[in-house]
Amino acid sequence: MRIALILVLLLANLNTGFAGPARPIQVTVDGKPVTFEKPPVMQRGTVMVPARGIFEALGGAVKFDSGANKLRATRGDLTVEMVVGAWVASIRGQLTPITTPAARINGAVMVPLRFVVDLVGAEMKLASATNTYEVKIPQVVVATPKGPRIEQVVHNAKDGLDVGRSLQVVVLGEASAQGTFEIVGIVSGVPLHEEAPGRYTGALAVTPALKIDKGRLVVRLTKDDLETAKEADRPVSLALPAALALLPAAGATVPTDALTVGATFKKKVRPNSVRLVLDGSDVTDHAQATPEGVSFKPDPATVGAHEATLDAITEDGQFIRKTWRFTVIASTAQAPTPPPVPVPSPTPPPVAATDISFVAPAEGSTVQTRRPAIQIQLTQAVKPESVLVTVDGQRVDAAVSNSGTTVSVNLAADIAPGDRQTTFAATDVNGKPVAKSWTFSVAAPTPSGPPALSVLSPSPGGTVRGSFHIKGVTRAKATVRVTVSLQSTMLFVTTESKKLDLTTTADASGNFDLLVDEKQLEKSTSLSLEIVAVDHEGQESPPVKLSVKRS
Asked: Is 50 exceeded by the pLDDT of residue 15?
């Protein structure tokens, strides 16, 4: 009897369903998964998805007016305008009631998925097993007007940028468009400037707050109210702690007898994943690799500029790749000096060491031209055939004066804006090595027209607590004026009690950060902000207006 009872209980437990954690909401369009900047959410029985992601997946385009808190979506002859929180939408110019308004959720403007699907005449069904909403577009679709062409997106953060440097973005595409770039989910609305027809550039200073590991960089060009977006082919990494310590250090100059190429890892790696390439040759089989580091000692070591690339995979599966450059000079080590032997003639005076009296452009300076004059002045002559000059690891043509004390560089092409690493190495007429490595900067072209202005925080309609920061991006060194209107609500009546006028100055990369002290805000329950940027020529940006609540 007891055995039968136990069997019954076991069968009952086997037939009882245990609810696991809810699956995340997935969306596909014609079988292809849609990647959103923020995950879809279920809100009061309605699936809400980011507006930009769903409209672009369905072949449309979206613009968002942060001042008016309004989005405008286009697809073929379809135009839809929705205001966040409003229960009506403008569809092809006609005001139409909607059952669920657009909303700002987790920092993204979201719209009802069913509303958008029905709007474009698509079909949708739910695959319950995977919680996936499968959207299928009818075969006959009205052609969508094309936005401006984007051909190429490049940036300088492939291997990560340290704090204090700048993320540089270059875009090639259709001329006469307005452009911005963003790092999805981190920063958006960073302006691009058209420095030449169809060539756009932008920059973002790397700060300790921008810790990004393989972020998605997306560029947007807008022309004639149509927008095109394109993601960079490679991810962006900024302000990350170093994964390894390089040997020699990037940009270092070392003598031949002290040269070891490799790295010490901050995390243990899988030794069989290590690959070390020196000047294009794979030297892994001749290197010593352990979970803590890798080292290779060239024999013999070659004088001149070198480039190394190191790949490895950490024990927890993180991929590491680093490419760096360094310069090798002849060793100054001498054989032991034998005891002096008396000679009848007096000992000649020692030969003075060769020094570098100055370099141009100067160390740490900024030049305005894309093809600067590079010059090295020495105190003694050098052998012309021994001269080696590189810019960012690439050898450049150099001419030596008749006296042998001046080396001038002829750049065959323009160099990109940003920090440029320059290295000089040679042997003087006495056979002694002389070398120097230094950095100068090439300034980005000065943009024309009123400055662009992008406010990154606070978010329109958001909530601030106590003191808060107003952050954004505009033209370098522009003055940013902020007018804060203090408002209070009592018995459903809102009154304005006071205005504050605050100013700050953007840094060399256009970033600004203004602190609003809670002591200045009295007991106001809501704030209206108007932000304007003014450059050194007195040109003003269009104002950005937004409202926030105080908690």
From this structure: no
The b/e string for 172-186 (b: 16+ C-beta within 10 A; e otherwise) is: ebbeebbbbbbbbeb
pLDDT (0 to 100) of residue 23: 85
Cβ(71)–Cβ(109) under 8 Å? Answer: yes
Topology given in CATH for the domain delimited by 356-442: Immunoglobulin-like (2.60.40)
Is the Cβ–Cβ distance between 478 and 506 less than 8 Å? Answer: yes
CA 163 to chain CA centroid, Å, is 12
428: DSSP letter: B
> What pLDDT is stored for residue 383 in this prediction?
87
Q: How far is CA 243 from CA 84, 238, 240, in A?
A: 43, 13, 8
Please calculate the CA angle 532-534-535 and round it to the nearest 5 degrees.
150
For residue 121, the one-letter residue type is G
Into which CATH architecture does domain 244-329 fall?
Sandwich (2.60)
CA-only gyration radius of the chain, Å: 31
Token pair in block for residue 340: 């002096």
pLDDT score, position 466: 80
Mean pLDDT confidence for 191-199: 92
Closest-CA residue to 411 (of 384, 437, 375): 375
Task: Tell me the helix, strand and coil percentages in the chain, rounded to 5.
Answer: 10, 50, 45
Please tell me the pTM assigned to this model. Answer: 0.29
Q: Which residue type does 212 have?
A: I
- How far, in Å, CA of 57 to CA of 355, rounded? 63
List the one residue out of 295, 273, 177, 279 whose CA is nearest residue 230.
177
Longest dimension (CA), the chain: 122
Q: Which residues contact 519 (CB under 8 A, 6 or more apart)?
A: none
Q: Which residue has the tokens 């700048």?
A: 166
DSSP annotation of 38 reads S
Section 98-107 average pLDDT? 90
Phi (first) and psi of residue 518, to 5 degrees? -60, -25
Residue 335, classed as helix, strand or coil, is coil
Please check whether residue 196 is in contact with residue 203, taking contact to mean a CB–CB distance below 8 angstroms: no
276 pLDDT more than 80:
yes
Calpha distance 217→167 (Å, rounded): 11
Q: Which CATH superfamily groups domain 150-238?
A: Macroglobulin (MG2) domain (2.60.40.1930)
Assigned CATH for 454-550: 2.60.40.10
3-class DSSP state for residue 228?
strand
Spell out a b/e string for 240-257, using b for 16 or more CB atoms within 10 Å of the CB, else e: beebbebbbeebebbbbe
CA distances from 522 to 394, 498, 513, 519 (A): 60, 9, 22, 6
Tell me if the bond preceding 101 is cis, omega within 30° of 0. no
- For residue 466, give every residue at least 6 positions away whose Cβ sits within 8 Å of its Cβ, in sequence order, or none: 518
Nearest alpha-carbon partner for 163 in 232, 265, 248, 241: 241
